[in-house]
Each structure stands twice: as C-alpha cells, then as structure tokens.
Amino acid sequence: MSQAELFGAGDASGCVFCRVVSGETPAAVVLDDEVAIAFLDHRPLFAGHCLLVPRAHHETLADLPAGQVGPLFGRARRLARAVEQATEAQGSFIAINNRISQSVPHLHVHIVPRRQGDGLKGFFWPRQKYASAEAMEQLRARIAAAVAG
Fold first, then answer.
1. Fewest beta carbons less than 10 Å away: which of 58, 99, 111, 127?
2. Considering Cα of 28, then 39, then 100, then 133, what sign does the dihedral take?
3. How far is CA 60 from the centre of its chain?
4. Quick count: other Cβ atoms within 10 Å of Cβ 119?
5. Would you tell me how many other CB atoms lie within 10 Å of the CB of residue 116?
6. Contact 98, 60 (CB under 8 A)
C-alpha cells in the first residue's frame, strides 16, 4: 500500500494528521487555534520535538494557499521560541519535508530543540559541491527563471 493510500494524500478522510486535528486521534497538543495545531512528535529527535500542522489538509508547502503561509509561519515562530524556552535549548531546527521523507502527506513543520554538541550534524545527508562555477551559475539562472515565472 502506498503512502497516499495509507494516509489519504490529497484527501483528508484518511489522513492521520487530519484525525489529530479533528480530535479523533489523541495527541500531546501544545498549541491549538483556528489556524493550526501543534503536538509532540511521537518519535522525537530530541524531547520537545513538535509538529505544527495547518488545520486544513494540504500535502505540501506549495499546496498551502498564499494567505495561510504567514499565519502558519507566525505560529512556527512562536512555537520555536516556546520550545527553546521550555526545554532550555540553545536554539532550534525548523524543517519541512515536501513529499520526499514526508512520512505523513499533510504539511507539517518540525520544530526541534537544539543544543551545542547534541549530535545532530547539520543536515542529515552528505553535502556535495558543484562541478564548476559555471554549473552553479547555470543552475542559479534556471531556478531564478522558475521563480520569476
């Protein structure tokens, strides 16, 4: 069974996070308002690792309506401060997976407390270099063109 079939990608009826939003599935909720709900991740990287999800079902950040981006990230900002304060962390790691490594296809923001020397090494994959300055510039130009439209 695919993730889409299992979690109802694009269809809130089978989505585990939509069931948390509706109250059907219990969660350790830390924020709950008209925009979003946040709860402790049941498999945290570190204690205090939270997931922030919009109440409405949207699979990825690109699917989130433009008018909802600011309100959602306002909550992410507030939650990051709260997680750092509550866990006495030195900082935090904020991340979103879009499709790849997205275990539940409902947009969610990871808020993870961080401490110097906590063992989390930057990103979770090896870094790569561009083949050349020209290759980097060509890719930069393609991305800029895509952003423009």
1. 127
2. negative
3. 9
4. 7
5. 6
6. yes
Q: Which residues contact 104 (CB under 8 A, 6 or more apart)?
A: 7, 15, 16, 17
Helix (H) or strand (E) holding 82: helix 66-87
Residue 38 falls in which region: left (phi positive, over 0), alpha (psi -120 to 50) or beta:
beta
Number of domains in the chain: 1
The residues near 116 (Cβ < 8 Å, ≥ 6 apart) are 90
| CATH number of 25's domain | 3.30.428.10
Residue carrying the six token digits 């499709």: 99
Cα distance between residue 124 and residue 26, in whole Å: 29
| Among candidate residues 93, 56, 68, 17, the one with its CA nearest the CA of residue 7 | 17
Residue pair 111/52 in contact (Cβ under 8 Å)? The answer is yes
Q: List the Cα angle 124/106/95 in 5-degree steps.
A: 30
Q: Which two tokens stand for residue 127?
A: 């870094």
Per-residue model confidence as pLDDT tens digits over 39-95: 999 889 999 999 999 999 999 999 999 999 999 999 999 999 999 999 999 999 999
For 1-17, the pLDDT digits (tens) are 333 333 333 456 689 99
